[in-house]
Specification:
Elements (H helix, E strand, L loop, with lengths): L21 H12 L6 E5 L33 E5 L60 E2 L6 H11 L2 H9 L13 H14 L4 E2 L2 H6 L13 H15 L8 H6 L1 E9 L5 E8 L2 E4 L12 H9 L2 E3 L5 E3 L4 E3 L1 E9 L6 E4 L1 E4 L4 E4 L9 E3 L6 H5 L7 E2 L35 E2 L9 E13 L2 E9 L6 E5 L2 E5 L1 H5 L11 E2 L22 H25 L1 E9 L6 E9 L4 H11 L11 E7 L4 E5 L8 H4 L10 E6 L13 E10 L4 E2 L3 E6 L4 H12 L6 E8 L2 E5 L6 H4 L4 E8 L13 H11 E7 L5 H24 L4 H18 L6 H18 L12 H8 L41 H8 L6 H6 L20 E9 L5 E10 L4 H12 L6 E6 L5 E4 L13 E7 L7 E9 L7 E10 L4 H16 L8 E7 L2 E6 L15 E7 L12 E9 L4 E2 L3 E5 L4 H12 L6 E5 L13 H4 L21 E7 L9 H18 L29
Parallel strand pairs: 3-4, 6-16, 7-12, 23-27, 28-33, 34-39, 40-44, 45-49
Antiparallel strand pairs: 1-2, 5-6, 5-11, 8-11, 9-10, 13-14, 15-18, 17-18, 18-19, 18-22, 19-20, 20-21, 23-24, 25-26, 25-27, 28-29, 28-30, 31-32, 31-33, 34-36, 35-36, 37-38, 37-39, 40-41, 42-43, 42-44, 45-46, 45-47, 48-49
Helix pairs in contact: 4-11, 17-18, 17-19, 18-19
Amino acid sequence: DTTNAKTVNERLTLNLPASTTVSKLFEDVALKAGYVNGSFHLAWGNMTDMVRTPVVLDQSSEMPLSDSGFEPGKKNFLQLTDKDGEQPQSVSERRGPYNSGLDDNTQDRFIGPLPRDGIVGCSNDYSSYSYASILKSETGYVGLVNQAMTCYLNSLLQTLFMTPEFRNALYNWEFEEGEEDPVTSIPYQLQRLFVLLQTSKKRAIETTDVTRSFGWDSSEAWQQHDVQELCRVMFDALEQKWKQTEQADLINQLYQGKLKDYVRCLECGYESWRIDTYLDIPLVIRPYGASQAFGSVEEALQAFIQPETLDGPNQYFCERCKKKCDARKGLRFLHFPYLLTLQLKRFDFDYTTMHRIKLNDRMTFPEELDMSPFIDVEDEKSPQTESCTDSGAENEGSCHSDQMSNDFSTDDAVDEGICLDSASSTERVLKPKSLLTFELFSVMVHSGSAAGGHYYACIKSFSDGQWYSFNDQHVSKITQEDIRKTYGGSSGSRGYYSSAFASGCPFLIAEFLDAENFPEHIKRLVQKEKEAEEQEKRQREIERNTCKIKLLCMHPVKMVMMENKLEVHKDKTLREAVEMAYKLMDLEGLVPLDCCRLVKYDEFHEYLERSYEGEEDTPMGLLLGGVKSSYMFDLLLETRRPDQVFQTYKPGEVMVKVHVVSLKNETIASPVSVRAYLNQTVAEFKQLIAQATGLSADTMRVVLERCYNDLRLLYVPNKTLKAEGFFRSNKVFVESSDSADHQVTFTDSLLWKLLDRHGNTIRLFVSLPEQSPGLLANRTSYQKQQEQQDLGSSNSDSQNTSDVEHADSLSQEVSTASSASAVDNRELENRIQIVGGSGTASDPENQLPSEERSDSDVNNDRSTSSMDSDILSSSHSSDTLCNADSGPIPLANGLDSHSITSSRRSKAHEARKETWDTAEEDSGTDSEYDDSGKSKGEAQYLYFRAEPYCQEDGSGDSHKCLLVHVDKRITLATFKQKLEPFVGVPSSQFKVFRVYANNQEFESVRLNETLSSFSDDNKITIRLGRALKKGEYRVKVYQLLVNDPEPCKFLVDAVFAKGMTVRQSKEELLPLLREQCKLDLSIDRFRLRKKTWKNPGTVFLDYHVYEEDINISSNWEVFLEVLDEPEKMKSMSQLAVLTRQWRPSRMKLELFQEVVLESSSVDELKEKLSELSGIPLENLEFAKGRGTFPCDISVLEINQDLDWNPKVSTLNVWPLYISDDGAVVFYRDKTEEPMELSEEERNELMKKESSRLLKTGQRVNYSPRKEKALKIYLDGGPTKDPGQD
């Protein structure tokens, strides 16, 4: 029950049968809670919903709980919330049956936040509804909303608010608007917050304005800090802001005390001392090295002033004795502040585990604390020196809370409430002039662990003497027994912590200013905030009655669908809503207002559900079915021309988009919209289409596309549209002619083939390679050869003579175009004509249909659904549909249209032909051709059409491209064959690259795969270059430059083949290196080696064979390393190690040198290094480099960070694990002294090393993510140094 502060931490539990209805659940909850049924809401309280608007249960629902989202056998969490801003109506004046007969002192309460299952950390979004709409707590106090992890801030603010002296002094300060921005003024925002805490009717208010004045952004809300640290930082900020005002010394007057830090010689009695000030007293809970903690605050205070003896090596040099003497050092309190603050140091560091820990030991504190035993009366009378320092600024003993962890300690997890089992106190003391007695006033409590937790405050009101728990949004009464629970040391040893913020006050305490005695500027502020609150309330009321629904409109000029959100009051009429939508869509000047109307629309199905004729004066709330958080439909602002009339859309109608198909022209027209009823018969539907299209209903064939590419012929006249599978929005194809195609089985008809092609055709943009003059002649001769082949194939296929003559004439055209000196778009167009001609000669079906396709067609046809998975080839198959031989399907009498549904899947299965070479797949090859060199992707009479277009680049130059319409079931091999005339070279001499987002290009190499993964408007780039044959792999060759800043440099693309030796591949590389890289090498002066990212690996020997000794794969990468001398690596038993000498005396790393070892012996490595460097063997030390090549490391860290001289005899064991070529080894002379550096030289070298390592991508140093420092900015926010990276 979140409607009352008393009940927010209590839980009502009901065990109900799963068959209980939701309405019965409301009755049971009302009875249990003592509320009138219908005066409250029940909302889901699961943690996944806490950050969003809660889902409210429907009280009138008669559905069983098992069908309403409840999980049987598990805990189902609900929130009882207010209804329409009003608290639930109580059946009697008592709180309810669970509270009857009990007063506040006898209830078993929990103080603190109520933990939720699955939620950890300090964020306490107890509920996700707006607290602004809930009435103030019955305690009369207002809570503070937790932004995320700002519970520590809320606790401090509530304590300061409950301090009369601080609140009154803050009210007496007046903000000068002309001098400072109110947004960044910390005192002004605190003043506003205190005024709201005192006068607001809300249950809780936000602190975002205060944190904004601190200069914090939203990320600060997710940083938890120590409350005592915040207090000191905020006090310092207030002192800075209050300079030269009456409040300039307020913090010191209220919270500052004095103490003496002294050292007294035990021989002569001479005492050296200084006066320090403090704002709080840090008390140790458990002394260092001790196992027993102090049992009370008094014991900790006694230990605080207990002097220590300086003797032995710690003796003190006495100025009077002029020698080192035994002395006594300690602290004495000279003066206590008006408000005394004690801080328990519950956070400590465990040097065994090297982790921060929290001490949960029990430490008691009294209601009244007598401080007279701890003050030095004589010292209080002594004159003060000017050597005082402010201990409050030294941060001594401050307790820093770590950033919130995502989990509590394990012993927290079982508790559902927060019981204050450990805490430390802060004391507010009453101090008459003759007594030093302080009264407990406020206790700050931290529950959780050292990794994070939750803060709240227990504060005593001096108005009525009552204790209250201020727990973020919730304020409730508590008792002295609850205060004693904060001592700590509970049997459950939960990690609760009380950071003491205690304030002391004399018996004659100050009284809070009431509204009548406010200063005039505060009265004006109160009135201003009241008006703002009333305005917010009115705005909330408007929001509660505002319908928010998606609005769509087809722009009458641009013809694009526009989208916006229409927010209209429920009492506004439809006529007024149309005017609002008209202005919202900015249609003024384009369409008259009386040519617009709003209709109910389903965007997903593109379905016009109904129009609202005659309801222009009906309120929108009635039309839309009330004010809802979301609607299951949208609104469409429909427009018409002045000479048109709006069509009436009746509920129950379905939208049908009718595409007219012409068998003669092989075209599919753009759609015509028709509205029909589901109970209409097919015959009636044909008459409706005939009226809309002018076609004859007698010879009409209607094909319904039920889902993507699933075609159903509607041939049963008396069958209803609903039985045929019509839904809200449908697409049909109609054809009406006297052709013999009517007599053919539908799946063998020309109509089916046209629709099949239409559904599988995609549009691709193909960028052709630039045509260099040297290639022109080759391309021309190739075209002639292709024309002769096309004509020969046409004659051999017994095609008609007219088609052959047409091809001959086209051949003459392309010959004429090819003889031109320049190749332009005319040549490209002629090539297209050749393809069109040959396609016509070989396959009449493949003629170009001049289809017009709408946007909806594109959307429907382009996407590939799971239902098409059978007809689209996977990565291991290729479907060749149109070559299938399928006889007519006999139809039995009485069969419905399911018998002749164009089941494209079954058709595909009949015609499936598996063309994948499994041997190739097993070997991982990229081959495109079989052993005979013939492309395996043979043309399967699938549709292909190309037309030229020019693409402008950024420089204004145009680039020749093709716009290709192609059946996506075509294989890549066939696709390349179709492109041959346009590229001008055989398909084996060019490569296909698919262009992805950000212009990333990836080569498509598997010719057996279809284009099913492509979609409309995908881009393809054609590049000249030899395509791969069977057993060949494309390899990227990089040069390894071990001593260069960038050791990896790309050289060339090469092709390696299965069975080729390394030496043969090197021979093939030599001409490529000379032509493309200007590298003139001999075959014995370079090597190839394995490349793993940037790391050099195994050296490949000349006799190694690819696929036998060396595994090779697609897009393989290899290093080429130039040698200064002939190759030393002759055997696989040898090991090539890259070594680098470290010179400490010069703070320098020498260049890499390779050492070839005959074995994995450490002794051999050290001998080779000794020979190489001249370092005596007994003085040589080595270490393995870390990370990726070149294993860079700072010269300032290399001595400490590497594991020098490991105690092993072989290289292939821990910690070295050197078993392959390319390992990096550093070595040094252990007798060489490091260079001595001044501080300035060290800093300069550190900067250089940091810059060098950043450029090479190596880490500079490692440090875990640090806790963000708590800062309050006086100038409105942090500023970044422009020179800082």
